[in-house]
Design a protein that fits this description.
The protein is about 20% helix and about 20% strand. It is an alpha+beta fold. The chain has a single domain, classed as CNF1/YfiH-like putative cysteine hydrolases. The strands form three sheets. The protein has a six-stranded mixed beta sheet with strand order 2-3-6-5-7-11. A hairpin with a 5-residue loop joins strand 5 and strand 6. The longest helix is centred in the first third of the chain and has 15 residues. It is globular and about 45 Å long.
């Protein structure tokens, strides 16, 4: 199958945050790879049924486009709160975790999403970075707090960027999801509003902002995307249960 219109390098999203020059970060879109439908075209995930050769080529192209000198720390994500040092992750052994951090130059942290929220973190001095996979289950379980704790940096010295996720006009959930978050903090009620179908529209971005601010991370950026409503740009599990994933990476140059 031919590639989609945009080449890989031109399709990448660059976070709009004032990170130090030494901190490099990007989020992929679904454009610029070799996978066929329904994974077309830049799918880096090896757990969704795509052809292994296509996934390998997509990862190779991504590494080449970013001039990476080390393999990204690809994780087996389970909507949990485990945070690992990225430099301990190897391609030969599957590592179950939902966030990675590092102080090692050239070592990319990466999470994969297709509606869940990718959260990037760095310090103002440019000495430590992290990436977390924060769907609603991970948010409720505390994956952001667990990641911030591993950085051993005063929260006021951290910056956060919220990458492409399902938006507040599209993320419809039931009473149990709302109850989970309002039990954690009654003020989370403001992150939910009634949907036309009699359920709730949840704002993942606002839930993450509230958690970050509660941890003392006040410099929070991003959060303007909606993966479900932009089918040409983003994969969305809610839109297409059989689909690819975007990758969100951060590393120290």
């Amino acid at each position: 199958m031919p590639e989609m219109a945009k080449p890989l390098r031109e399709s990448l999203l660059l976070p709009n945050w004032p990170a130090p020059v030494r901190v490099r970060s990007i989020s992929t879109t679904r454009q610029g790879g070799v996978s066929q439908q329904p994974y077309n075209s830049l799918n880096p995930a090896d757990h969704v049924g795509d052809e292994p050769a296509c996934v390998a080529e997509n990862r190779r192209r991504l590494a080449a486009a970013l001039d990476l000198v080390k393999e990204p720390a690809w994780l087996e994500q389970v909507h949990g709160t485990t945070v690992v040092a990225a430099e301990t992750v190897t391609a030969s052994v599957s590592v179950v975790a939902d966030a990675a951090w590092t102080r090692e130059p050239g070592q990319p942290c990466v999470v994969m999403t297709a509606d869940c929220l990718p959260v990037l973190l760095c310090d103002r001095a440019g000495t430590v970075v992290a990436a977390a996979h924060a769907g609603w289950r991970g948010l409720a379980a505390g994956v952001i707090g667990a990641t911030v704790a591993r950085l051993e940096t005063p929260p006021a010295e951290l910056l956060a960027w919220l990458g492409p996720a399902i938006g507040p006009e599209a993320f419809e959930v039931g009473d149990e999801v709302r109850a989970t978050f309002t039990t954690l903090d009654a003020r989370n009620t403001s992150c939910f509003r009634p949907s036309p179908a009699g359920r709730w529209l949840a704002d993942l971005y606002q839930l993450a902002r509230r958690q970050l601010q509660g941890l003392g991370v006040s410099a929070v950026y991003g959060g303007e995307f909606c993966t479900l409503s932009e089918p040409e740009r983003f994969f969305s599990y809610r839109r297409e249960p059989r689909t690819g994933r975007m990758a969100t990476l951060i590393w120290l140059q």
